[in-house]
Amino acid sequence: MGPLDTRGVVRDHSTDPAGATSRAGPAGRCPVSWVPVSPCTSACTADAAPAVDVATRRRRWLRLTAALAGTGTAALRAPMSSARGRRRLLVCAAARVLTAVGVRVEVHSSPTAWPRAGAGRAPGQLVVSNHVSWVDDLALLTVVPGRPVAGREVVDRPVVGSLARRAGIVLLDRARVRTLPATVGEVAGTLRAGTPVTVHPEGTTSCGVELGRVRPAFFQAAVDAAAPVCPVAVRYRVEGGAGSAVAGHLAGEPLWRSAARVVATRGLVVEVHLLPALDPAGADRRELAALAEYAVAAVTEARPPVVAAHPRRPRCSPRPSPGCATTAPSCVPPRSGPGRRSRGAPGARWVTS
């Protein structure tokens, strides 16, 4: 397969050598951080959703407490288990929590099967998905068991953090950009060993109205390991079939507040759409990131949640501030319509076997 043709894909990113994207500071000053920032706030989740009664809500909290207690027990067993056993502990813990809070996972299979992976057979898949909530992390664990990539702050969470640390998730320190190449290298090594890895390349959460920009850093691991890139689109709906952002965990919101909305919602379904795999042969990380972004956005933006107050994405001034030798990049690439992504489909060859 030759180089992927990404003509028509509009991308306006300024990246560091590791593929991380910088953002502009106040009033268009020099970039101050490589950490992506979501424009979404808790206002995106403020719309009313079908609610369960108080008794059901109380039962769900009790079941969630019991599930977390079971997760704590699993964390104690993790060091004595094999790598496969630790992954099973993660999957079982995720399934218990989802069941406790009344969330149903609905899987939409890819029209073409993903390449099979395994030690001594083929590299693992790099599974890349959009990120709305902590709920989609749990749902992905039950659908695509593997090693997830998570921020280092996850290990500081009670109970869950202990299991995550002992089960061997890949930790990303977003505050130290210099550690990113080493983390990407760790992911590449995991893929070469035949183990799937799941990552959210947006680097932050969004409410689902529009997809954030996909950062190319972790796609380098797929290039280095010759591993297929498997895009996954995640979206939510509630009873009645309406799209919803009620499960969102946005803009520094406390985790308990998002959990309280999930517990109180009736008929919450997380849809997991498995999309055709991308062959990394002849492509670089930016091409793979562009193709994955458009594949996921085609699903999530086709039926986005209706929210009352979705903020506009911030735009940075293209003019350098006095005393700054660099030009601040545009935070948002041009759009083909009001709030919509250009849909010039890149000519790519998908993996079919």
Description:
With 353 residues, the chain is an alpha/beta fold. The protein has one domain (51-300): 3-Layer(aba) Sandwich (Glycerol-3-phosphate (1)-acyltransferase), CATH 3.40.1130. Helices cover 30% and strands 11% of the residues. The strands form two sheets. It has a seven-stranded mixed beta sheet with strand order 3-9-8-4-7-5-6, sandwiched between helices. It has a two-stranded antiparallel ribbon with strand order 1-2. Helix 4 links the parallel strand 5 (147-151) and strand 6 (170-172). The longest helix is centred in the first third of the chain and has 24 residues, at 54-77. It starts with 22 loop residues before the first strand and ends in a 53-residue tail after the last helix.
* Class from helix and strand fractions: alpha/beta
Mean pLDDT: 75
Assembly type of the chains comes to single chain
Total number of distinct structural domains? 1
Q: Which percent range describes the beta-strand content?
A: 5-15%
- Intertermini distance: 14 Å
Biggest sheet strand order reads: 3-9-8-4-7-5-6
Uncertain segments of ≥5 residues (pLDDT<50)?
1-33, 315-353
CATH class equals Alpha Beta
Radius of gyration: 20 Å
N-to-C SSE series? EEHHEEHEHEHEHEHEH
Number of helices: 8
- Helix residue percentage: 25-40%
Number of strands: 9
CATH topology term: Glycerol-3-phosphate (1)-acyltransferase
Shape: globular
In short:
This protein has 353 residues and is of the alpha/beta class. The chain is built from eight helices and nine strands. The two termini are 14 Å apart.
